[in-house]
Amino acid sequence: MLVSMRDLLPRAKAEHYAVGLFNTVDLEMAKGVIEAAEELRAPVIIGTAEILTPYASLEDLSAFLLPLAKKATVPIVLHLDHGLTLDMVKKAIRLGFTSVMFDCSTDDYYSNMGKVRALVRYAHERGISVEGELGHVGANASSAENHGPNDNSIYTDPQQALEYATVTGVDALAVAIGTAHGAYKEKPRLDFDRLKEIASIVSTPLVLHGGSGLSDDDFKRTIANGISKVNIFTDINTAFARAAHEVWKPGMGQTDIMPVVRLAVKEATMEKMQLFGCAGKY
Ligand SMILES: [Zn+2]
User: Fold this and answer.
1) pTM
2) Ligand 1 being an ion, which residues bring their Cβ within 5 A of it?
3) Catalytic residue among 60, 81, 151, 218
4) Confidence (pLDDT) at 153
5) Which residue in 15, 55, 158, 205 has its CB near the most CB atoms, within 10 A?
6) Tens of pLDDT along 160-196?
7) For this structure, is 107 an active site residue?
8) Which residues have a Cβ under 8 Å from the Cβ of 73 and sit 6 or more positions away?
9) How far is the CA of 231 from the centre of ligand 1 (A)?
10) Residue 54 C-alpha to ligand 1 middle, in angstroms?
């Protein structure tokens, strides 16, 4: 069934587990993720990011993601990750996405807060949930979200997080605690004390971006310390490509590869769902 993040994240926060957002760029990836959710009876957030739209447009993706989500036997949120412009965010809402992230994290603090507050009003009137980001989750050189050569994370300030969550009314808040988007070259240094402090004063469910490549222990600790949603793309993206590479032999065609890559995405997704503690919740 199709739901918004407001239907999933408050419970996740109360029960100390996290729901995964798995970004998808084609039908096989989407099916792999949804099959994982149904097999594990887990809630799931599925969608795409503005930066991934050159690979599949919002129109194309929503044409099959919406019916897949509606007929699924577990709750599914259709989410736009890192909407960078108001145009793109409103387009997603028009197309039937039930949740959007409006990423104004590269704006100054007050501009970020003002723009996101206005969008929250617009979205809530339509039953759509909104995620904001405060601080800035940086990107590795290999990431699709790299904003430039000097892209460094700016850690989220706990007091600002409280004010931001209160003023904007966001349903989920992405915080910067030392992760970066894309695959890691060096081991990330996570600021668990900062996360714990934010989670203790902000009641809004918190989101971890840049989770691909973290250790299992890192995930468990961030979730235990207040993360209710984790974004994943790199892990399922590489699982897909690796499976295609490993299985291909001369003479094989696309239809030989499709079930293999779908299963690889499903298995990578299930691994994360087990880790996040959301398996068996529905
Ligand atoms: Zn992100």
Assistant:
1) 0.93
2) 209
3) 81
4) 57
5) 205
6) 999 999 999 999 999 999 887 776 666 777 899 999 9
7) no
8) 1, 38
9) 7
10) 17
